[in-house]
Amino acid sequence: MKLFRHETRQQSAETRRLYARYEVAHTIVDFLAAFLFLVGSVLFFWKALETAAIWCFVIGSVFFCVKPTLRLAREIHLWRIGRTDTLARAEEQTIG
User: pTM for the full model?
Assistant: First the structure.
């Protein structure tokens, strides 16, 4: 089983649900990052709010870093499910 394969995501109802949950989390993080960058950009119009704008950009950047981390975590999670299923089938064959 390999990472980042469409077949892995469609393997079972469990993997489809897991994939959907990660996609929702990824989309939420994407919106938060975009929102913070937008707010930070607007705040730069006022010199007094420059520090707040900088913090919006820093936090937004952290969210942008979380995005690929979520994708990798999702793929590893799916890989582990597939590996567990493979091991369970092998165990069943040994016992049976």
Answer: 0.76
